[in-house]
Amino acid sequence: ASGDWQVLVDAGAKTLPPGCGPCIGLGVGLLEDGEVGISATNRNYKGRMGSKRAHTYLASPAVVAASAIRGYICSPATATRGAPATAAPAPDVRFGIEEPAQKSTPPAAAAGDAIRGFTTELRGRLIFLPADNLNTDGIYPGKYTYQDDITREQMKAIVMENYDPEFCRLVQADDVVVAGANFGTGSSREQAATAILAAGVRLVICESASETFKRNAVNNGLLVLESPPLVRWLRAKYQTPSAPATVVSGLDAHVALVAGRIRLTDAAGAAVYEGELPRIGRAAQEIIVAGGLENWVRARMAASA
Question: Is the model's pLDDT at 20 over the cut of 80?
């Protein structure tokens, strides 16, 4: 009624329906190869707002508005009153993973700790993804999020597309995928978990994982476990400047899910690493056996009917 919206439209702003738009790489206003964008939305992952070869910067609405006026990234002070006063240098910012205090080694699990139908041991090739903050856009690009008719075979062909397009050709059924810190950060899209399952992977081990992703994963039947010591060992062995985004390690992983142990063997069958993993409790086992939370709830409702 005030006419403010029309001022924006007359200035060239694009009118979008409410909901996901450029932030998730849908609709208009998407970035093309080599383009630079600045946004007040909350994501700047590679490929999030268009091309993987574009660059997206995040800022406050004031900085975004100032940059739109000038045509390059700048502060509101620069846009309105010339160069701002020299600011003090920003303090160093350090990032890291806090590990919990050392816990006593749990006793070996008894056979009764596994429910009927739960696979207590997994064995497969170890695939290492030497990257931190591998987000849900990297795992399952936003442009596919609302394609409800997409098949599992199609999901397998696009899993990790924004991280490494070669991943879908390198991964095999029953591979154990190991990644860095903060795995699965970003949007709460369950396809990031179901696409990994579609590739035949049943277990992801990482230095740390987004709590939202962990919940989405187990709710869809994918196991996600955290093991900073294992990731440190793999980094020392494989994370070099020339390392590919997807490292086919040549090692076999033997995982005891209920006992909470992992052993890696080389091509000759010799053990090269052994360590602990979080143990899978009965609640998670029930969901995995049911094939996901939806099936688990359906079975519980049917049993109580």
Answer: no
pLDDT digits over 32-59, tens only?
A: 999 999 988 877 888 888 888 899 899 9
H helix or E strand, kind and range, residue 217: helix 211-219
What are the backbone angles phi and psi of residue 181, rounded to the nearest 5°?
-85, 155
DSSP string spanning 52-121? TTSEEEE--HHHHHHHHHHTS---HHHHHHSSPPPPPPPPP-----PPPPPPPPPPPPPGGGS-TT---E
Give the whole-angstrom CA distance, residue 65 versus residue 142.
Answer: 26
Find, among 227, 268, 263, 228, the residue nearest to 250 by Cα: 268
Strand order of the sheet with strand 121-129? 223-226, 203-206, 176-179, 121-129, 247-256, 261-265, 271-276
Residues 236-261, buried b or exposed e (16+ Cβ, 10 A)? eebeeeeeebbbebebbbbbbbbbbb
CB 67 within 8 A of CB 49: no
Predicted TM-score (pTM) of the model is 0.75
Measured between alpha carbons, how far is 266 from 287 in angstroms, rounded to an integer? Answer: 33
CA distance 289 to 305: 21
Q: Is 195 exposed, middle or buried (0-12, 13-18, 19+ CB in 10 A)?
A: buried
Q: What is the dihedral of CA 296, 301, 302, 305, to 10 degrees?
A: 160
CA dihedral sign of residues 112, 118, 123, 126:
negative
| Amino acid (1-letter code) at residue 137 | D
φ, ψ for residue 121 (rounded to 5)? Answer: -135, 140
> How many residues would you count in the chain?
305
